[in-house]
Amino acid sequence: MSIYLDNAATSFPKPEAVYTAVNYTLQKYGSSPGRGGHKMSMQTDRIIFDVRERIASFFNIPSSSNVIFTFNVTMGINLALKGILKAGDHVITSSMEHNSVMRPLKRLEKEGVAKTVVKCSKEGFLNPNDIEKEIKSNTKLIVITHASNVVGTIMPIQDVGEIARKKGIVFLLDAAQSAGLLPIDVQKDNIDILACTGHKSLFGPQGTGFLYIKDGLDVEPLIEGGTGSNSESDEMPDFLPDKFQGGTLNTPGIAGLGAGIEFIQKEGLQKIRNKELHFAAEIMSEFKKIKGVKLYGSPNPAERVSVVSFNIGEKDPAEVGNILNEKYDIMSRVGLHCAPNAHRTIGTFPVGTVRVSVGYFNTEEDIERLIKAVRDITS
Length: 379
Ligand SMILES: Cc1ncc(COP(=O)(O)O)c(C=O)c1O
Known about the structure:
The protein is α/β, with parallel strands linked by helices. The protein has 2 domains: 3-12 and 269-378, Alpha-Beta Complex (Aspartate Aminotransferase, domain 1), CATH 3.90.1150; 16-266, Type I PLP-dependent aspartate aminotransferase-like (Major domain) (Aspartate Aminotransferase, domain 2, 3-Layer(aba) Sandwich). Helices cover 38% and strands 15% of the residues. It has 11 helices and 13 strands. The protein has a 7-stranded mixed β-sheet, with helices on both faces. Helix 1 (16-28) runs antiparallel to helix 7 (251-267), helix 3 packs parallel to helix 4 and helix 9 (317-328) packs across helix 11 (364-378). The longest helix is centred in the N-terminal third of the chain and has 20 residues, at 39-58. It starts with a strand and ends with a helix. Bound molecules: pyridoxal-5'-phosphate (PLP). The site of pyridoxal-5'-phosphate has 13 residues, from helix 3.
């Protein structure tokens, strides 16, 4: 049987309830939410509302209208960065970011936004003092990832949030690798904008995600279009969430995302985290004993999410990934993982690493087979 160890890209499989919710919504609630006064449209609207409420309660968001549905975290990050930063502003980020942060920032730089990239340690850790040192009078926003998608390092988000709050700077968190796995409380963690993707640890389908935007922030929409509200006007409504939600939503996907979050709530975040941590710790501890295997990131599994990056001697990671796939039926992800700066930071640019990322539905046998495969490849 195939072994899926690419959960950091997209979680697979999903809880049964997610498939049921997507299918049920497609079959029973096929209409556009918020667009018609008829029965089905109102029921579809209700589904969207319920999921929005669920998200708000899961992340301690004070009001569910501040939850804006997006198609992934990339869209949410683009909305936040391009909707806030203007020529003359300064933005701070870290050297462990995904291209979903670095590429919009590059574009904004060309439009006159100044950028500082704070260097993280070789293990991928961010020192919050290094962020504080870079703050200037025109610093408008700090954006960092909660957990690295390359080595899993968990960032000190509460400290960064506190620094941002003290200085009146907007704090945007990319929670792609942490939402559904690590506790996130937007109020306690001083998060002004939370960007999440639905298809990773939240167990939703691809094409889902959301953005929380705190009240009182001045943000321009990324997309203009129909909202089913204020239709007489050529301009977007100025209230949330409609201001940022032009176009028909992915209702079946959103219903699936809601079922994914409900699964986490029923199962318990800590239980999910513990199981994944146990597997990642086992992989790290066994890989350490195999001659020729080099592990990256913190040696302490508790300081990371369940992402393990490694290389075997001088072998090209692409070749290792190919052998794992072809000979052992194990799916990993190789290369730069859309995060070239992170690989520069840990010293693996340009070839990258082999990344295995465990999920809640992996089994002890999957992990044993992976360890045995890597032993075989090195011997
Ligand atoms: C840290 C991080 N940020 C952003 C993304 C982009 O996610 P999506 O493709 O769902 O927008 C990913 C996904 O790989 C990620 O790991």
